[in-house]
Structures are given as C-alpha cells and as structure tokens.
Design a protein that fits this description.
secreted; globular; single chain; six-stranded mixed sheet; antibiotic; 2 helices; 205 residues; 34% strand; alpha+beta; 20% helix
Length: 205
C-alpha cells in the first residue's frame, strides 16, 4: 500500500468516526465530572425547559426507581443523567439500565446518555439503587437541544433514602417513550456529508 493510499484511508476513517459517533453519545466520558458537552459553546443560562420526574419518590437498598425525562416546550436530542449524592455532589451513586434510545456511560454505568440524535419528547428508564445506604440523592441531567443549545446539570427534586423508614409502596408504571422520526433525517445528513467530503478527499489524492 502506498503512503498516499494509507493517508487517504486514515483520513476517511477519522472522518467516518466523527460523523457517525458525534450524535450517538459515544466518547462522552470526559464530561462525566462536570456534565458539560464538549461542543465549543456555552450552556444556556435560562431556566431549563425540561423536567425530571421519578417514581417512587424514595428508594431502599437495591431497589429500582423509574425516571422520566420530559420536554415541556421543546424536544431534546441528547442528554446525560447521573444520580448525585446530596452530601457529596461530586459522587455518583447507583447505576442506570439502558433501554431504547439510550446507552450507559462513565464508570460502571454511573450515567446514561442518548444513543442517537433522534428528537425525544419523553424517555423513561430505570435507576438501580446501590446495595448500601447512600443518603438522599438528586438526579442531574444535561439536556442537549442542538449542538450549540444545551442546559447543563438540570436538577430534579430530592429522591429520599428510605433505609429504616416505613414507606407506602407506590404503583409505578413505565411511561411510554415519545420520539420523532428525525433520526432518519439526521442519519441521512451525516451519511451525505461523509460521501461529499470523501469525494473531495479522493479527488485530491
């Protein structure tokens, strides 16, 4: 293989990695601490148009909690959610179970993120409590409406640690996921961009 061919293949591989992985929640671990997207833009300072709800409003060791993310006035394409300790906000507790449109991120599934740029109005998934009492927690979520429009670390109400507390068992059901068909359009856009730029690169070589 000639050096020119090798450089072309390397360029195409790097291009495909960029256009295919960027909207899929891959390689986001560098944002696990501050939950800030590396988009070269500042996060919004206005009130977040998204809400975070959960059921039940308490947890016990090893129990599960249904968590729902909802867009109140706009849809979101990307997100990252973590459960942070109320006594040490730098500590993530519990794990998330990946479902449709999501993937695990950060160490030991401590976070959940999107797996496509499809527009989402509502997503529901499960948070699994740790096996030991960890105190009250709050869900922190970064919502991404677009590359340059995002809200960092939107916070939920407090999820109570019900260890050694008598609680009323709630009938919690999983809410339906509500998404649009924009993933097809987004995927087509990135594929087209890859083809166009690939053609330019090939013509130069």
């Amino acid at each position: 293989m000639s050096a020119k061919t090798a450089r072309l293949l390397l360029s195409l591989t790097a291009l495909w990695t960029y256009v295919s992985c960027y909207p899929n929640g891959i390689n986001v671990d560098e944002a696990c601490s501050d939950m800030t997207p590396r988009h070269n833009h500042q996060g919004q300072t206005s009130a977040s148009p998204f809400k975070i709800t959960f059921c039940p409003n308490w947890y016990k060791q090893g129990s599960s909690v249904n968590v729902t993310l909802t867009g109140t006035s706009m849809k979101f394409k990307g997100f990252m959610i973590q459960a942070r300790s109320n006594t040490d906000s730098a500590t993530s507790v519990g794990t998330f179970t990946a479902t449709d449109y999501t993937r695990n991120a950060c160490t030991s599934s401590k976070a959940l993120v999107h797996n496509s740029a499809i527009e989402k109005s509502q997503l529901t998934f499960k948070w699994m409590a740790p096996s030991t009492a960890s105190g009250n927690v709050t869900f922190w979520v970064t919502f991404v409406e677009d590359e340059d429009v995002f809200w960092v670390a939107t916070k939920s109400s407090v999820l109570m640690d019900a260890t050694n507390v008598n609680v009323t068992v709630e009938n919690c059901t999983m809410n339906s996921n509500i998404v649009s068909n924009s993933a097809v359009r987004v995927g087509s856009y990135f594929t087209l961009m890859f083809v166009v730029v690939s053609s330019i690169l090939i013509s130069r070589y």
